[in-house]
Amino acid sequence: MTSCNLAPGSYPYAEEYDIHTSEKNLITAIENFKKHHPEYCIPNTITIQGNPTTLNDGRRKADDYWYHIYFYYSDTNQIVKSWLRPIDSTNTTFAFVSINQGLEIGNWKLINHDLKGKENSSEKEKFERLVLDGVKKELSYLK
């Protein structure tokens, strides 16, 4: 696994982790992680401008380049946005994009841009420890 941050593209500030597995396997590992740790699933009480909404994992359209994934940190009431993108048939990028404070969508802060210094480092470490390590553990069961 490697981590990097390159600026060009639609998600220029995302913290990217290259995982040695296919996108399909990584999706399965994430689904299993959420099944075994439902506290990381998005609550059904999220809103946009006060109106109920949902954040679903997956591609927004069939030809979407990114497979979007959302996690929830109940201890800090934060929603984490991430995505997957295949590099090739055996490697996939797993990116940590942003954090929304609270269950009202619209309070997003981009990792490596809106968050600075210690706060940024702390959020990346938290993602790696809680989400990435858990997903990698689930991935090891698939091999």
Please tell me about this protein's structure.
This protein is α+β, with helices and mostly antiparallel strands and 143 residues long. It has a single domain (2-142), classed as TATA-Binding Protein. Helix content is 28%, strand content 32%. It has 2 helices and 9 strands. It is globular, with a radius of gyration of 15 Å. The two termini are 16 Å apart.
CATH architecture: 2-Layer Sandwich
Average pLDDT score:
93
Structural class comes to alpha+beta
Instruction: Tell me the Rg in angstroms.
Output: 15 Å
Order of helices and strands: EEHEEEEEEEH
Globally, the shape reads globular
Q: Gap between N and C termini, in Å?
A: 16 Å
What can be said about the biggest beta sheet?
6 strands, antiparallel
* CATH fold title: TATA-Binding Protein
Strand content: 25-35%
Write a short abstract of this structure:
By secondary structure, the protein is of the alpha+beta class.
Show the helix and strand layout.
Layout: E1 2-4, E2 15-19, H1 23-36, E3 47-48, E4 51-52, E5 67-73, E6 78-88, E7 91-101, E8 104-105, E9 108-110, H2 117-142
Features:
single chain; 143 residues; alpha+beta; TATA-Binding Protein; 6-stranded antiparallel sheet; 9 strands; 28% helix; disordered N terminus
